[in-house]
Amino acid sequence: MFIVVPRNTPIPTKKYTRLTTIHDNQTIVAFPIYEGESAETKYNNLLGEFKINSIDPAPEGSVKIHVWFDIDADGILSVSAQVESTSLKNGIIIKQNGDLTAAEIQTMIEEVGRYKAEDEKHKAMISLEDLAEKLESLAVDPGRSKPDTKSMKEAAENVIAWLDRNPHADIDEINKRREQLKTTFPILREEN
């Protein structure tokens, strides 16, 4: 999750972002729309969701999706998305219905502060896992020597196993392992 319209942004406002598919052969993209600032959606308020279906299967990251966020002076949020170079599009209109009281909003803001360290750790774990998966995918390059391939696969498997065994590891240890992986395999520095 990422923040598109930060808290206290003057309205009316329009924001734009470009996304890509995150899996090979992905044919559906869901767009859940949340209110809140936490990196973990469970701490935010789901406002609505829409999907784009029937996307042609393609490699991860190759399908580009344009997304527009428009909040008018009355606080009505319109979100629309279109797959680049196609007519595939969809959207949602969300009318602010006052579901959250001022006290609930203040509680959410306080929770964001409390969970910030947890969010950062969660991001670090995902980053380390992504790096291990990238190493695994680089290992299957037919131009690599067998010893390189073997050591890359083993290192990636060890990182994934370590993450599974240590879900409560602190952020410093996670970042240390990430840097060790990048130092041991400089190709990862080139990829990121």
From TrEMBL:
**UniProt keyword annotation of Nucleotide-binding present:** yes
Question: What molecular function terms (GO) are annotated for this protein?
Answer: ATP binding; ATP-dependent protein folding chaperone
**Entry's InterPro entries?**
HSP70_C_sf, HSP70_peptide-bd_sf, Hsp_70_fam
**Which Pfam family is an annotated match for this chain, by its short name?**
HSP70
Question: Which residue windows are transmembrane per the record?
Answer: none
Could you tell me which Gene3D superfamilies the record lists for this protein? 1.20.1270.10, Substrate Binding Domain Of DNAk, Chain A, domain 1 (2.60.34.10)
Task: Write the record's keywords in alphabetical order, separated by commas.
Answer: ATP-binding, Nucleotide-binding
Put simply, this protein is called Heat shock protein 70
Q: Which organism is it from?
A: Rhynchospora breviuscula
